[in-house]
Amino acid sequence: MNAIVEVHDNHELDCALEAGSKIIGINNRDLRTFDVDLNVSIKLSARVSGDKIVIAESGIGSIEDIDKLRAKGVHVFLIGETFMKAPDPGRKLKELIASTTYPNS
Q: For residue 53, what are the CA distances in angstroms to 5, 13, 20, 31, 49?
């Protein structure tokens, strides 16, 4: 069994990689200010080797966000607030799934 190790910055990523973490969750939300910046995942995922699973956490609201992050090596997306704010969360989920192309499919 593996655990998701959540990181927010370069220092935390260094610690996670040195510990041998296989699943890295990159939180795009600054927990001090609650600001969200997808560039956190873009910047940090560039430092993670291809044998690890990278999860982008927070701030993902559109298929464009998913495509942008996937192009930078992100494999998995934790989406919460987008569904919480959507008038019809099920419809929003269907929209994201229908618009997504999957590698090797």
A: 11, 13, 12, 23, 9
